[in-house]
Amino acid sequence: MNAPITVRDISAEEHRAWLRTQPAASFLQTPAWGEVKRDWRHESVGWFEGQQMVGAALVLHRSLPRVKRSLAYVPEGPCIDWDSPRLVELLRALRDHLRGKGAFALRIGPPVATHRWGATAIKEAIASDIVRRYDEAPPTSTDAVGVTVVDTLRRLGFRHLSADDGFTAGQPEYVFQVPLEGRTEADLLAGMNQLWRRNIKKTERNGVQVRVGDASDIAAFHRVYVETAERDRFTPRGREYFEHMYAVMSAEDPERIRVYLAEHEGDVLAATIWIRVGEHAWYSYGASTAAKRELQASTAIQWRMMRDSLAAGATVYDLRGITNTVAADNPHIGLIRFKVGTGGEAVRLAGEWDLPLNRLLYKAFDLYMKRR
Question: In the UniProt record, does the keyword Chaperone occur (predicted)?
């Protein structure tokens, strides 16, 4: 007979120790990320089968105004065995633990894929006069575990939060990834399209240099990032946010986060933030200047990060969110074409799901968020 599954609070060190036993986990599920998100209250919890630890999660809490009840959010998690025959018990144990702590709703984002579209499938979809979205195009492959997880969540009463374009207020449902497992640099380069390979050679001929910076280079990254925000019309985060993120994530693991800078004759032309947890590496933030764009500094910095991810033992290089579109007239299609050139694949994740624990408060919270 199986031992009962329970969930209890654990220390940050217990949480980190668990993550070190896993091949990979989202950086949003590290204790350090709880320190980054200072506008949320955070805690670490662990699953136990008897006395054996079988899972962990970072839980972020957002309280309702004037009410001591919270939304319990597990971004890109929890870190459990999603293929477990006891998945329902694992999820119910988390539900019961958080309900006992005053949560009015549980929000999770299972880090499992449901469908994948390779570069050829994406190009065919873009060329189609009928297909306008990934979910209208035949996938290259379907992941049975992810499909089962989605079915299980629906049966348990979870509500899917996906927006039509694949973006919600939380984490993206569609991402773009370059598989690295079992590959060499030469193989990675050969998998790219001709434009990418030509631009990589161009950056080398033109003397673009890419280096890994340190905490003192966050200011240079932020200057380029603010310029990018003005050009692309989004609201930038303050420099102190990135300085704090770099400090707490580096303290957790010196190899967790890096800042990269692409330079030419003393000018910083592009800058990025790279993060790795185990075998998963992310291109987390990127920025570039309008100056010397013909030198392809953004291509140079991406190629360096891919090679460094490979050297670090990563099996996935993740370029993060994309929209659910392959329509040739969509304003995001240029970004899609840029990423497809890497030879990677579009991946649909299970997405984010809410489980109301107090329906009245959940409805009030939903209305509050819509009016913000």
Answer: no
5-109+352-371: CATH superfamily: Gcn5-related N-acetyltransferase (GNAT) (3.40.630.30)
Q: What is the CATH number of domain 114-143+173-349?
A: 3.40.630.30
For the stretch 260-300, pLDDT in tens is 999 999 999 999 999 999 999 999 999 999 999 999 999 99
Nearest to 288 by CA among 265, 256, 260, 249: 260
Phi, psi of 68 (to 5 degrees): -85, 50
pLDDT digits (tens, 9 = 90+) for 160-181: 997 654 434 589 999 999 999 9
How many CA atoms within 13 Å lie on the side-chain side of 310? 18
Phi-psi region of 118 (alpha: psi -120 to 50; beta: other; left: phi over 0): beta
- Both tokens assigned to 243: 């300085």
Residue 307 CA to its chain's centroid (Å) = 19
In the block, tokens 């910076």 appear at 213
Neighbours of 124 (CB within 10 A): 15
Contacts of residue 110, Cβ cutoff 8 Å, sequence gap at least 6: 77, 82, 146, 149, 153, 349, 350, 353
Beta partners for 270?
A: 262, 288
- pLDDT digit string (tens) for 65-91? 777 899 999 999 999 999 999 999 999
Q: Please tell me the distance from the alpha carbon of residue 53 to that of residue 171, in angstroms, as a whole number.
A: 27
CATH 3.40.630.30 positions along the chain are 5-109+352-371, 114-143+173-349
Q: Name the nearest CA neighbour of 153 among 338, 355, 348, 295.
A: 355
Q: Is the pTM of this model over 0.90?
A: yes
Tokens in use for 186?
């030469």
Spatial distance between the Cα atoms of 226 and 235, rounded to a whole number of angstroms: 9
> What does DSSP say about strands 280-288 and 316-321: parallel, antiparallel, or unpaired?
parallel
From residue 165, how far is each of 80, 107, 187, 208, 325 by CA, in Å? Answer: 28, 20, 33, 36, 7
